[in-house]
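Shift notes (night). Ran Transglutaminase-like enzyme, putative cysteine protease while the centrifuge was going.
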Amino acid sequence: MLLKISHRTEYRYDAPLLYALQRLRLVPYGGPAQTIKTWSLTIDGAREEVRFTDHFGNDTRLLSVEGDPHVISVEASGEVETHDTAGVMGAHRGFAPLWLFGSETRLTTAGDGIRALAGGVGGGSDLDRLHRLMGNIRERVAYTVGATDSGTSAEEALLQGTGVCQDHTHIFTSAARLLGFPARYVSGYLMMNDRLDQVATHAWAEAHVANLGWVAFDVANGISADARYVRVATGRDYREAMPVSGIRLGQAQEQLAVHITVEQ
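Came back to this:
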């Protein structure tokens, strides 16, 4: 499947910025499930300071902003040919050792709720257990926009019983690690069947399974990733794979607008 993607992020400020630094992870990389045909990153109102590949293998750019202008825009766009691998992403690669993905972060630390969730998965093959875990999370945590924020932990979302794809992914990775599987957070794009325009990127999890490698699980939709998915960045949680992050100094008030389209 050939997917065309456009992702525009625009920041408007009511006064000049003293200083701001932004980190971008907006460039997908090739692999068993995707081939990058074309991709461009256009930046207006900011200066690229450095680009590098981080320890998770993510293309990372650092931008700085100082003084005028009052508008900063970042647009990532291109075409990606995707392949349905039934969610199997293959062997582990990158600088980060596999054991690192078995470690907790602040957003994925397991509490009593997640321990009980993992303990209730039962036996069977590795894939059976992980699919059962995905189904159990979907039953426990309803998809509700605005119910959580970027700082909500896996345990908090599970106890609350509502969340979005970020929360589903954090819960899955936390519980999968308790079950003995290295697990990671994936940020990227998903072609929706019922809409063209989107206001946020998508997130899903991958667990490392013996003899298969990394296998994708999208808890929010209850499936393994297929040809509608484009992977952009990975990490142990949202903060390590988020598309855009940064800091700013000064009293300027920020307005953020995000517009994403994913189409065949």
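The first strand starts at residue 2 and ends at 13. The helical segments are 112-119, 126-140, 154-160, 165-178, 238-241.
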